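Anyone? Bumping this.
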Amino acid sequence: DAGVTQSPTHLIKTRGQQVTLRCSPKSGHDTVSWYQQALGQGPQFIFQYYEEEERQRGNFPDRFSGHQFPNYSSELNVNALLLGDSALYLCASSPGLAGNTIYFGEGSWLTVV
Amino acid sequence: SQQGEEDPQALSIQEGENATMNCSYKTSINNLQWYRQNSGRGLVHLILIRSNEREKHSGRLRVTLDTSKKSSSLLITASRAADTASYFCATERGATNKLIFGTGTLLAVQP
């Protein structure tokens, strides 16, 4: 049983560019969330998708957007990249919307230069 | 913003010793989950403890939860060098599946 898988593992972008990160949830999971983890910090919640809709959103600007597909996989898009967007982006999945164990992928390291 | 804080921020012990990490949080919770993170890698789930539970065990791990003090602890017994990692607590407020993380404890186990 594959866990949460993310791609790419590492990428380097230039300031002002756009990036798309991808996530496949653990088998049987229909809820996908995205987190940003800066160096030396705990992960910060970006947003959550369920039934192809954004259900909750953290304190992140509109430059951060996402999508969930009918097979529950998800994408995170970041436009107009800033140096401060450099971080580890983590995808998490769980069954349903509440009270369950939440599993994380290995993350995508984004460096903005 | 962070929901809570782990204490200590860093901990160095010898192999075979026990390691205790504490987590405090600010608001009432639905559950609390502990995760391990090796350097530069993803989060590995360790234990979930619900707000109506006081203690849970998993192998060498023991987690306690005191909702009156808004705190939790993670005990790793008979530590190994492979336990070297950062440990985070994360709380779910209400029925949301949204986790709010603490600042983490960096554990170093010396062989």
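Late reply, but here is one note on the structure posted above: The mean pLDDT of chain B is 93.
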